[in-house]
Design a protein that fits this description.
By secondary structure, the chain is an alpha+beta fold. The chain is 43% helix and 25% strand. It contains two helices and three strands, in the order αβββα. The chain has a three-stranded antiparallel sheet, covered by helices on one side. Helix 1 packs parallel to helix 2. The longest helix has 20 residues. It is globular.
């Protein structure tokens, strides 16, 4: 599902990572020819996607990516 509001995307993506850290994947894609950046967070049941087109969006995605990485590293593995 494409979410156009960054705050909404970040909130939902973080909740998804916290709920299922082992099953959740994060991908980013930069397309210089289209001047866009994309972040996708999925656990194979829910797929959240955000597409931005500015340097500000890129900086938000980079900062948020490190936040998500911290969640992944500190997650309790129960499986």
């Amino acid at each position: 599902m494409l979410i156009e509001d960054w705050d909404s995307f970040a909130k939902q993506a973080e909740a998804l990572v916290l709920a299922e850290p082992v099953r959740t994947r994060v991908t980013t894609k930069h397309r210089p020819t289209e001047a866009s950046v994309e972040m996708k967070v999925t656990d194979d049941r829910v797929c959240l996607k955000y597409v931005g087109d500015s340097v500000t969006d890129l900086k938000k995605i980079l900062a948020f990516s490190s936040t998500l990485n911290r969640h992944f590293l500190t997650a309790e593995v129960t499986e």
